[in-house]
Write a structure and sequence with these properties.
homodimer; 115 residues; mainly alpha; Multidrug-efflux Transporter Regulator, Chain: A, Domain 2; two-stranded antiparallel sheet; 5 helices; 2 strands; 70% helix; flat; DNA-binding; MerR family transcriptional regulator (chains A, B); DNA-binding transcription factor activity (chains A, B)
Chain lengths: 115, 115
DNA sequence: CTCGAATCTGGAGCGCGCTCCAGGTCAAGA
DNA sequence: TCTTGACCTGGAGCGCGCTCCAGATTCGAG
């Protein structure tokens, strides 16, 4: 199976090498397989997962939130517990969207006013 | 004209007294009028403005962003410059909404999967 | 085999956005 | 007048999310 060096994984994901190691330390990704010499070998699955993490980070979730997300998806949990957790997270995101909507409305008012 | 003490302004806005003073130091609000003895006296206008700041903070804008916002609205700028700035800010917020949408979609997929 | 680039680890440093603290001032009630 | 509590200032401290650094190790090209 073909794997990626840290530099390649960084290029593919747009996440810095330092941050990749940080995420791994924090348990958000991996643990990533190592070569005999101890170098990291990122798989396609790793890259995909990093993409998910990035997606949630971009959406404003904190490291702790993501740790929770990882925990729920990785460990064995009854489906209903997972669904409950996921719905809760979704609701939180909706709150954020609402906050953004309010701010955009204020901007729109100002834009109208100055136009 | 009736004014509010720091404690009252904090109650009304939901922003801590420390944070109100911090915002003032950073130029996001005020400068707030003072009593003879040097205590702050918040006006209704101040409270309203604090509401705006809070709205944008909740939407995820940084202190520096808000300083820019304040500068554009307070100082004399040609309307078209203000509008350009406001539109730019609005576009940034749309980006954030899009990021949230992507994250919510991922959650929805997982929810569907586990349901 | 040698050299240089890439990677490793542990830990320090940094910018942000507050939050807290010490030490002093002001103001309203008993 | 005295006390008590809210408020003042300047500055330190903190949690987050990286980011950078030193010093050692590994690996591929020549």
């Amino acid at each position: 199976m073909t794997t990626l060096t840290p530099a390649a994984a960084s290029d593919r994901t747009g996440v810095s090498i330092d941050t990749l190691r940080y995420y791994e330390r924090e348990g958000l990704i991996g643990p990533v397989r190592r070569s005999v010499g101890g170098r990291r070998q990122y798989t396609e699955d790793d890259v995909f997962w990093i993409g998910l993490v990035t997606c949630f980070r971009d959406a404003g979730l904190g490291i702790a939130d993501l740790r929770g997300f990882v925990a729920i998806l990785r460990a064995e949990h009854p489906p209903q517990e997972r669904v409950a957790f996921l719905r809760e997270r979704r609701a939180a995101l909706e709150q954020r969207v609402a906050a953004l909507g309010r701010a955009m409305q204020v901007l729109d008012e100002k834009i109208t006013y100055y136009s």
